[in-house]
Design a protein that fits this description.
mainly alpha, 2 domains, 17 helices, repeat, ARM-type_fold, ARM-like, Armadillo, cell junction
């Protein structure tokens, strides 16, 4: 577990170690089957897999990267890769969402397992069944890592989490646990998932009211809470930017007063969350059909 956090070279060596990833997955599968999701070894195994999934898309060997990315269709090499937020070409965005999902091997081995639907379902199962905060956080964090990019792999993982494995209810429950780091990681995962336009209506329906409910009414008291607040605002921005329906849902859940309060606090420590809230308000005002409701 310690070695898996030793940087890019350490991750590379461990990913290449014959049988290591397969053994970790095998152990976790056995622990879940034996109804022992809370043992320390399961936590260690998940934490290792979490670390090995960090920057996976960037660090993949060419033979894997090519097999995943060769399936892109009709995407010009001149297109700019869209960032997480900010101005984004609708044309590029639509092409990105039109990218076909990578084909999965029925029996993945080694590094192939890290993005396979089998392991994604294991993470979601641990999120639902484990009461150990480190195990919950590592499972959420692994999914956050796998959905962090803009290519076919993050897109496919997001589709699996939301549509194929019905993972949103388990993730939503993590928004209300007592551990601030687990909540923060759950929100960060939702922020990644919310960038996927084809999933935004599902995400808004399932978790938007919960995201609003955990927004603070006043300035939070810790750095983790600042970051969580900013991530919530960016997630809501993604969900409402192109959807008047989702913006109305945000309005009806009484989120506007909280967002205004957050946006008006210009203290240096809270500025990241304040900027995120201001961006969200600016985006919400772009839905002209809601102006009269906003004024009320």
């Amino acid at each position: 577990r310690n070695m898996s956090s030793a940087g890019p070279e350490g991750r590379k060596k461990m990913r290449e170690c014959d049988g290591l990833i397969d053994s970790l997955v095998y152990y976790i599968q056995g622990a879940i089957a034996d109804h022992k999701p809370n043992d320390k070894t399961t936590e260690n195994c998940v934490c290792i897999l979490h670390n090995l999934s960090y920057q996976l898309e960037l660090e993949l060997p060419d033979r894997y990267a090519q097999s995943i990315y060769m399936q892109r269709r009709n995407i010009s090499t001149n297109d700019k890769t869209p960032g997480c937020f900010g101005t984004r070409s609708r044309k590029v965005k639509e092409k990105q969402q039109d990218t076909p999902l990578p084909e999965e091997k029925s029996s993945p081995r080694g590094v192939e397992s890290l993005w396979h639907s089998t392991l994604i379902r294991i993470y979601l199962s641990l999120i639902a069944k484990s009461t150990r905060n480190y195990t919950q956080e590592a499972s959420l964090g692994a999914l956050q890592n796998l959905t962090a990019g803009t290519g076919p792999m993050p897109f496919a993982v997001a589709q699996t989490v939301v549509r194929k494995a019905n993972g949103l209810p388990s993730i939503r429950n993590m928004l209300h646990v007592s551990s601030p780091t687990v909540r923060k990681t759950a929100v960060s995962l939702l922020r990644n998932l919310s960038r996927n336009t084809s999933l935004q209506s599902d995400i808004a329906r399932e978790v938007l009211p919960d995201l609003v409910s955990i927004l603070p009414d006043s300035v939070p008291e810790s750095d983790i809470a600042y970051e969580t607040t900013a991530s919530i605002c960016y997630t809501l921005y993604n969900l409402t930017q192109s959807s008047s329906h989702n913006a109305r849902l945000l309005l009806n859940t009484d989120g506007i007063p909280k967002i205004i309060t957050i946006s008006m606090n210009d203290s240096n420590t809270f500025s990241k969350a304040s900027r995120a809230a201001s961006l969200l308000l600016y985006s919400l005002w772009s839905h002209t059909d809601l102006h009269s409701a906003y004024r009320k």
